[in-house]
Amino acid sequence: MAHLSRDTSPGLRKLSSIGPAHTGLPVPQALLFGTLAVGTLDILDAFIFFGLRGARPIRILQSIAAGLLGREAFNGGWGTAALGLALHFFIAFVIVLVFLAASQRMAMLTRQPVLVGLIYGIAVYLVMTLVVVPASAAGGGGLPPWPVALNGVLIHMFGVGVPASLAASAARAR
């Protein structure tokens, strides 16, 4: 609804704004929506990409739990799979939170959310691949074979970085 305000001329009114006064999302809501988008898109990609290579969803989720529990995660059935899913969404939460916090201090991060999100996604992929996974109980490290690396970079660009950036941009519009 448009808001009208009095002009200095008697009897005249002018249109002072078009649209609602506050169009942005509250930060907690942007964080929730961003976390759900990032976590869902990323895990669906893993289920599809690795599923086409023979991995079952339970095994994919257990491999996430292995970051905390090590190889024992693969002997824990659906319990460790559930832990893996919870850890996955916790990591998604942290990824979105970091971008949201940075964007609250640096408005330039939300001016071109898609471009910045693509770059953020690459940065997240590199940190996860070269720092987080090697430091975890799952071990490993280094770059995976090129099809896995390409899929990882693309999902982190489009399914992690862009949704995180769009969530921050939605909160910033407030």
Low-confidence segments, given as residue ranges, are 1-7, 11-21
The count of strands amounts to 2
Q: How many domain units?
A: 1
Let me know the average pLDDT: 88
Proportion of strand residues = 5-15%
Series of secondary-structure elements, N-terminal to C-terminal? EEHHHHH
Helix content: 55-70%
Terminal residue distance? 17 Å
Counting DSSP H or I runs of 4 or more residues, the number of helices is 5
Which descriptors would you attach to this protein?
174 residues, mainly alpha, two-stranded antiparallel sheet
Describe the 3D structure:
With 174 residues, the chain is mainly alpha-helical. The chain is 67% helix and 5% strand. It has one domain (27-172). It has 5 helices and 2 strands, in the order E-E-H-H-H-H-H. The longest helix is centred in the middle third of the chain and has 29 residues, at 77-105. The two termini are 17 Å apart.
Task: Briefly characterize the structure.
This protein has 174 residues and is mostly helical. It has helices at 27-51, 57-69, 77-105, 113-135, 146-172; strands spanning 3-6, 13-17. The protein has a two-stranded antiparallel ribbon.
List the helices and strands and how they pair.
Elements: E1 3-6, E2 13-17, H1 27-51, H2 57-69, H3 77-105, H4 113-135, H5 146-172
Antiparallel strand pairs: 1-2
Helix pairs in contact: 1-3, 1-5, 2-3, 3-5, 4-5
